[in-house]
């Protein structure tokens, strides 16, 4: 496999294509067809609204709509059968009206829908979308995995206090932050 | 072929060693040219590169530093990629997968900033314990240079002598700044280890503590010292380069040195380098400093062989490329019922060093132990998500795994051994230059230490922490402290450089840094490299004065 690499030291913002199947690395910048990452205003379409609606049940936290739009676009572009799975999840929720994610996951009838739901949850927590052959990085500091410990643990590269402003004190493990 | 102006001092490499010497030479009124194989890249680009990585790659310290084709380094982003540059062989090849950066600033971009001095005993392994070699000078000779290096880099450290390293050893000057506070994880680790007789010391570290220093801001605990400090609170050579240029130093980036040219009288006359268009250039000077790390320096010397120097430049002893060292590292992940809470403060802020000293060193290696202080949120999340959790159970498990797990690390002191050798591979890089081939065996001294001493100690530490799980990776790993390839000694027949890191064979060639180190000790090598750099700088300046 040929190495295809820019001579620029800059890694392209948010979109990385990783060739994981050979000894060499394919590591280059790729624009997705959704082209949502140019920094312009993002507009929410029907699919995006459906994605946010499904996400709000799957992930019981405050969700950032801009990140949701970008995540949905990356999933449409890179995750096989995503639009169909999203449609099925939305229909199931509409019909069964589960009270929370626990009830929904218990009730989902097949593995592929459970996996689709799990991959949506994972994208919100990691800030990245695992596609068939790509990983799309959507957000860093807004990834929900950091919120779970935001009362004590640093988001690497972001300061949590100031010069010598930290101590050995830590809050109780059981005290989950609200986010 | 293009000719450049003749400089007093030509420095190959822009890491800590090259920058310290360049600045000393400029301050003494000498003209300086620095050659750097890679590009000059701004801090924010590297920080953004890091944040834009897929989560699984954010612990690959090489990943935010994609090399240009002409300045390759070992990369680990995809399986097998680590074999594309360093040609590693031997029973512990994995333990020599050294990470470094070929950018302006060198590996200081992603060093941990830790500055343990070597001890008086570390410099006398042969006479005290009958193993390894003795250094060509004693600790008292090195001490003033350690102090200067601590001020040059801006090292913070404890004011209490009982917490300083080496123990009971006079310091000529206090640290320029007091210690950084410990977060909850390192404080708990310190408290739990003390009854075991394991003294977890606050690390001397090149991070600004509470105040700005040398034009850089105070550390704010961004917990990202490697792969890159986002605010330059940690010393990195990239912050020294603008000052060097302001003082009149000339910096040439994307200039890959590939040949050192000596004349009939073994005096070095020039360095040849390729630019990214594969065009060769020749730069001339009066003194030459090769400071492009412990792998690239011996590689360049071996690449420079000619009719008069058939084994390479500086290599009449046949010791160039031998004695390759690093501290072989073992890692153990522990899980506990009680939270540790790492991830507050710098990624490394303390270590246990009293385990590195003792008469047992006649039998097996001393070692340094520590608990990594990196935030473990992303590790906890990956594990929790793998379990298929969701809702409140997912949040609780991420929090538990982030807080109640830790990484224990032990780094063993290496012995210099002639079989651990860097040679020129028959495989070539993008420019057509031979890649480095390195044979590496950690040796029985380290293996005995792991079996009899360090692994049992790791298990005791885990038990004291209340570990419910102890997962030891039994494979020796690299610590990225590249040492030994141009070993220092008094005897030109079995060493490469003298006490000032001057080549025994070439009076105007200096090879300072990790490659010159006679032994490695258990601690991080940078402050010793920096001390040797300042000693070499003094010798260079003195040589010009007497010329």
From TrEMBL, chain B:
Residue stretches spanning the membrane: none
Protein name per UniProt: Dehydrogenase
Source domain of life: Bacteria
InterPro entries named in the record: FAD/NAD-bd_sf, GMC_OxRdtase_N, GMC_OxRtase_C, P2Ox-like
Residue ranges constituting the Glucose-methanol-choline oxidoreductase N-terminal domain according to the UniProt record: 225-328
PROSITE patterns, A to Z: PROKAR_LIPOPROTEIN (PS51257)
Cofactor(s) required, per the database record: FAD
Family per record: Belongs to the GMC oxidoreductase family.
Domain Glucose-methanol-choline oxidoreductase C-terminal: 416-533
Single GO molecular function: oxidoreductase activity, acting on CH-OH group of donors
Alphabetical UniProt keywords: FAD, Flavoprotein, Oxidoreductase
Organism lineage string: Bacteria, Pseudomonadati, Pseudomonadota, Alphaproteobacteria, Acetobacterales
């Amino acid at each position: 496999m040929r190495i295809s690499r820019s001579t620029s030291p800059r890694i392209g913002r948010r979109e990385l294509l990783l060739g994981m199947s050979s000894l060499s690395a394919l590591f280059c910048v790729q624009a997705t067809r959704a082209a949502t990452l140019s920094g312009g205003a993002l507009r929410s379409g029907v699919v995006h609204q459906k994605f946010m609606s499904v996400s709000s049940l799957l992930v019981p936290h405050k969700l950032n709509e801009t990140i949701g739009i970008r995540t949905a676009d990356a999933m449409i572009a890179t995750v096989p059968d995503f639009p169909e799975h999203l449609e099925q999840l939305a229909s199931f929720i509409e019909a069964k009206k589960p009270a929370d994610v626990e009830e929904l996951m218990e009730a989902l009838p097949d593995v592929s829908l459970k996996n689709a739901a799990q991959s949506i949850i994972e994208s919100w927590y990691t800030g990245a979308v695992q596609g068939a052959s790509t990983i799309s990085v959507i957000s860093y500091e807004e990834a929900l995995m950091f919120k779970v410990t935001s009362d004590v643990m640093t988001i690497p590269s972001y300061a949590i206090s100031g010069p010598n402003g930290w101590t050995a004190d830590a809050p109780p493990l059981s005290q989950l932050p609200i986010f | 072929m293009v000719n450049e102006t003749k400089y007093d001092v030509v420095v190959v490499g822009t890491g800590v060693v090259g920058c310290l010497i360049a600045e000393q030479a400029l301050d003494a009124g000498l003209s300086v040219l620095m050659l750097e194989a890679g590009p000059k890249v701004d801090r924010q680009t590297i920080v953004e590169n890091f944040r834009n990585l897929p989560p699984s790659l954010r612990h690959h310290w090489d990943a935010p530093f994609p090399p240009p084709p002409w300045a390759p380094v070992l990369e680990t982003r995809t399986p097998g990629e680590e074999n594309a540059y360093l040609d590693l062989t031997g029973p512990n090849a994995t333990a020599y997968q050294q990470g470094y950066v070929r950018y302006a600033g060198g590996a200081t971009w992603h060093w941990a900033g830790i500055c343990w001095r070597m001890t008086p005993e570390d410099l006398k392994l042969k006479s005290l314990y009958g193993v390894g070699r003795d250094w060509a000078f004693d600790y008292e000779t090195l001490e003033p240079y350690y102090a200067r290096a601590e001020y040059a880099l801006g090292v913070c450290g404890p004011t209490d002598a009982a917490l300083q390293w080496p123990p009971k050893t006079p310091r000529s000057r206090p640290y320029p700044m007091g210690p950084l506070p410990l977060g909850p994880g390192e404080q708990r680790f310190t408290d739990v280890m003390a009854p075991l007789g394991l003294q977890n010391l606050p690390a001397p570290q090149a991070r600004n503590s509470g105040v700005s220093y040398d034009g850089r801001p105070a550390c704010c605990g961004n917990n990202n010292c490697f792969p890159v400090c986002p605010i330059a609170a940690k010393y990195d050579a990239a912050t020294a380069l603008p000052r060097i240029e302001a003082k009149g130093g000339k910096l040439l980036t994307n200039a890959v040195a590939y040949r050192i040219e000596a004349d009939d009288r073994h005096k070095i006359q020039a360095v040849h380098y390729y630019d990214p268009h594969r065009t060769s250039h020749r730069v001339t000077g009066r003194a030459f400093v090769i400071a492009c790390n412990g792998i690239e320096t011996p590689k360049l010397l071996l690449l420079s062989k000619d009719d008069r120097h058939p084994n390479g430049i500086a290599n009449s002893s046949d010791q160039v490329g031998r004695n390759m060292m690093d501290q072989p590292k073992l890692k153990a992940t522990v899980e506990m019922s009680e939270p540790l809470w790492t991830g507050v403060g710098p990624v490394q802020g303390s270590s246990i060093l009293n385990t590195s000293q003792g008469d047992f060193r006649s039998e097996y290696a001393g070692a340094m132990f520590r608990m990594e202080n990196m935030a473990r949120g992303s590790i906890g999340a990956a594990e929790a998500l793998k379990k298929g959790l969701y809702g409140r159970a997912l949040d609780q498990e991420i929090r538990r795994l982030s807080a109640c797990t830790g990484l224990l690390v032990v780094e063993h002191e290496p012995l210099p051994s002639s079989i651990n050798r860097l040679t020129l591979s028959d495989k070539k890089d993008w420019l057509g230059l031979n890649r480095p081939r390195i044979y590496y065996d950690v040796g029985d001294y380290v293996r005995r230490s792991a079996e009899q001493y360090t692994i049992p100690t790791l298990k005791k530490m885990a038990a004291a922490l209340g570990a419910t799980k102890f997962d030891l990776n039994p494979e020796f790993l690299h610590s990225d402290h590249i040492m030994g390839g141009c070993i220092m000694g008094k005897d030109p027949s079995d060493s490469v450089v003298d006490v000032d890191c001057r080549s025994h064979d070439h009076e105007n060639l200096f090879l300072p840094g990790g490659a010159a180190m006679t032994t490695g000790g258990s601690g991080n090598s940078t402050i010793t490299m920096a001390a040797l750099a300042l000693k070499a700088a003094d010798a260079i300046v003195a040589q010009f004065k007497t010329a």
